[in-house]
Amino acid sequence: MKKNKLLIALSVFVMAIMIVFATGTKVEAASKKQKTGKAYAKIIKEYQKAYKYAKTGKDYTKLNINREFVYAVQPYGYGDGRPVYRIMDFNKDGNQELFIALERGETATIYDVYTFHNGKAVRLMEGIGYRAGTCSLRKGGIIADHSTGGAASVMAQYHKLPKKSEKLKTIVTLSMDGFSEKPFYKIVKGKKTYITEKQYRKLEKKYEKKYKKIKVTFYKVDSKAIKNVKKGKFNYKGQKTYKVTT
């Protein structure tokens, strides 16, 4: 009888510890989500302002944004679009990434990418956008960046965000520089190798096939969305969505 009582007491004690641990984990996760949301809401709000300023001609230079975004929105830019965002754990490490884009029908152009690392939002990419280079989300947690310096110069880079990291790792770079004596080369693990045009075209097809574009659901940027994100709720019921490729 005493043995049974001891076993029951021990079981209750173990269950209590498990409940306390589970509760603590949930509280910690909720706290992290709220901190992430607070940081990201500030960034989304900057882009909301930038969109309005670009439409009205107001000075946007003090905003912490990618100016390519404004150039695309301005009346003499590259066509109208709606500002959208997506917050998701793109590399499956428990940290949320933020993508800011302009939606145009079935596609969207990404202008800013952040991750949340050591309690703060960290920008992952610089100088992306319609003119500076197209950033696209790919299968397997890959972020591709295609840029051009003119008709004769193009570069494709395929990046991955290592788990718990604040910096992208470039898997491969493919480049064509029509003004160089050796126009084609690849960079893998920091090593640059000159290749033929045939090899370049083959690798180009290989990586585009391996890392295919994926459709991603983005959410419309509005004041209600920003308030919700700030609270750690990354979207709200009834919010306008856009399922697009980038």
Brief summary of the model shown:
The protein has 246 residues and is α+β, with helices and mostly antiparallel strands. The protein has 4 helices and 12 strands, in the order ααββββββββββαβαβ.
What does it look like?
The chain is of the alpha+beta class. It has helices spanning 2-56, 67-73, 197-210, 223-230, and strands spanning 82-88, 97-104, 107-117, 120-123, 134-138, 142-150, 153-160, 169-177, 184-188, 191-194, 216-220, 241-244. The strands form two sheets. The chain has a six-stranded antiparallel beta sheet, with helices on one face. Strands 5-6-7-8-9-10 form a six-stranded antiparallel beta sheet, covered by helices on one side. Strand 6 (142-150) and strand 7 (153-160) form a beta hairpin. It is globular, with a radius of gyration of 23 Å.
Low-confidence stretches: 18-24
User: What is the arithmetic mean of pLDDT?
Assistant: 88
- Gap between N and C termini, in Å? 68 Å
* Helical residue percent band: 25-40%
Give a count of the beta strands, DSSP E runs of length 2 or more: 12
For the largest beta-sheet, the strand count, sense and barrel status come to: 6 strands, antiparallel
Report the β-strand fraction as a percent range. Answer: 25-35%
Number of helices: 4
Q: Any idea what the radius of gyration is?
A: 23 Å
Read across the widest sheet, the strand sequence of neighbours is: 4-3-2-1-11-12
Q: Report the oligomer.
A: single chain
The global form is: globular
* Secondary-structure element series: HHEEEEEEEEEEHEHE
Structural class, from helix and strand content? alpha+beta
